Amino acid sequence: MTSEPMKRSTSHQSGITIVVGAQWGDEGKGKWIDWIAGGADIVARYQGGNNAGHTLYVKGQKVVLHQIPSGIFHGGQKCVLAAGVVINPGELVREMEKVAPFAKATPDNLWLSARAHTITPWHIATDGRREAQREAAASGSAIGTTKRGIGPTYSEKTARSGLRFGDYVNPVARKNWMEAMASAVDGFAAHCESHKAEWESFSKVAAQLAPFVCDAEARVRKAAGEGKKILMEGAQGTLLDLDHGTFPFVTSSSTIAAGACASLGIPPRAVTGIYGIAKAYLTRVGAGPFPTELTNETGNALRERGQEFGATTGRPRRCGWFDAVAMRYAQDVNGFDGVILNKFDILSGMDELKIAVAYEHPELGCIEQFPWNAEILAACKPVYKTFPGWHGDLPKTGGIEALPKAALDYIRAIEESSGIKVVAAGTGPGREEALLGRDLERLVALNS
Ligand code: GDP
Ligand code: IMO
Ligand code: MG
């Protein structure tokens, strides 16, 4: 039997919407996916693993999701971990238990791709060991990874010796994989011996997760063909992309919009909307160049007001001004239909605000294009435009046009300098705390 080829969606067919982090992660994807997911039938995480920490509020209670898609709390939506994701099985089971008071994850509403790769205790140990070696090298090469085994698991996948999730839940295939690793990889057998309890629990949860494992990509394609609305949830952000980010200070997956199609096995022409989430300022956690970083009182103020501490590792996030050079690049790479400017409330009360519109490099002079090389970027100094700030509380909900003039001018300056269209602004961590702007209806209706 041959299946129908997927057609390009039109206004009355399915909508496939991709939501991407437009900066260095932690833009507030969890909050917005949770909000938008109300209009979706399927919410699919397309890359990364439990290095992600997506915060949202359910019934007033803060929940941080690391692996389960941020659509789980609506009821009725199917949530998917697609082929491009790496899964930590033990942590996933713990997360399912954590969300249980609000949402029950069942094989009917949580689909785990058999093609996804498995994070094992070996990969986590390898991540820690490599990072410690880079730290000891004192050459500034440490990446500051989350030490969740992400890089080593994707390396194993690319080397074609990784453990796919469909094989992980099959006791025979899992045993074969462990034997092959023990004979091929120095130290693997010794690790299994010295970390027996970890490996036993790793094997034990396989039986629990087996009923959730399926050909998730085929199910998603079928649903798309039936006109269902699909929301693809990115993790990390564009500037952490393995190919297009600030290599080597990146994560190990394809975080950009195109990565969603590769992960889900969806024809790019079937996608109907691509939206970016950006902060109204900028943060980064971990090492790597950050031209607009503020290591002064203003940076500390942004961190305190914005509560900029990692949702996964608790590390303080580095803070700085909005970077329009980086945002132009994110727009070029992803082709956003619109960008949500999040955490806008955090800027209230600042006397002045800055936007980097270009960089100045000591040898290359004025640079307007985001450089491919992290060393070049590290030597760049931002060229700023300065804007007056605003004081007093902003409206929490309603239309974006209700903002004070200085705030609107700042948004227009971001749009003009970055070549983006701002479709909403975040005014607080809660689901409803948002000012809605032009063209947002398309996103809320998931492009139907
Ligand atoms: P994600 O990884 O992109 O989902 O973002 P994180 O959850 O790591 O970090 C975003 C943080 O900002 C979380 O603590 C959210 O609760 C919070 N947050 C999200 N949107 C807003 C907003 O518009 N205003 C404020 N003040 N906080 C927000
Ligand atoms: P969410 O989805 C911010 C960063 C790490 C490190 C680099 C590589 O919550 O936005 P890894 O463990 O992936 O090998 O670390 O990437 N990083 C993130 N920074 N938000 C994230 O996810 C991140 N996931 C990884 O700090 O610099
Ligand atoms: Mg996060």
Task: Explain briefly what this protein structure is.
About 35% of the residues lie in helices and about 20% in strands. The protein has about 450 residues and is α/β, with parallel strands linked by helices.
CATH superfamily of the largest domain: Adenylosuccinate Synthetase, subunit A, domain 1
Instruction: Describe the main β-sheet briefly.
Output: 11 strands, mixed
CATH class category name of the largest domain: Alpha Beta
| Secondary structure: number of strands | 21
Q: How would you explain this protein's 3D organization?
A:
The chain is of the alpha/beta class. It folds into two domains: 334 residues, 3-Layer(aba) Sandwich (Adenylosuccinate Synthetase, Chain A, domain 1), CATH 3.40.440; 95 residues, Orthogonal Bundle (Adenylosuccinate Synthetase, subunit A, domain 2), CATH 1.10.300. The protein contains 15 helices and 21 strands. The strands form five sheets. Strands 9-7-5-2-10-1-11-15-20-21-19 form an eleven-stranded mixed β-sheet, sandwiched between helices. A hairpin with a 2-residue loop joins strand 3 and strand 4. Helix 3 crosses helix 4. It is globular, with a radius of gyration of 22 Å. The N terminus is likely disordered. 6-O-phosphoryl inosine monophosphate binds next to helix 4.
How do the strands and helices of this protein lay out in sequence?
Elements: E1 16-21, H1 29-36, E2 42-45, E3 54-58, E4 61-65, E5 78-81, E6 86-87, H2 89-99, E7 110-113, E8 117-118, H3 121-136, H4 150-158, H5 165-168, H6 171-184, H7 188-194, H8 196-209, E9 213-214, H9 216-225, E10 230-233, H10 257-264, E11 273-279, E12 282-284, H11 297-305, E13 318-320, E14 322-323, H12 324-334, E15 338-342, E16 352-361, E17 365-367, H13 374-379, E18 381-388, E19 398-399, H14 405-418, E20 422-426, E21 434-436, H15 440-444
Parallel strand pairs: 1-10, 1-11, 2-5, 2-10, 5-7, 6-8, 7-9, 11-15, 14-16, 15-20, 19-21
Antiparallel strand pairs: 3-4, 12-13, 16-17, 16-18, 20-21
Helix pairs in contact: 3-4
The chain binds guanosine-5'-diphosphate, 6-O-phosphoryl inosine monophosphate (IMO) and magnesium ion (MG).
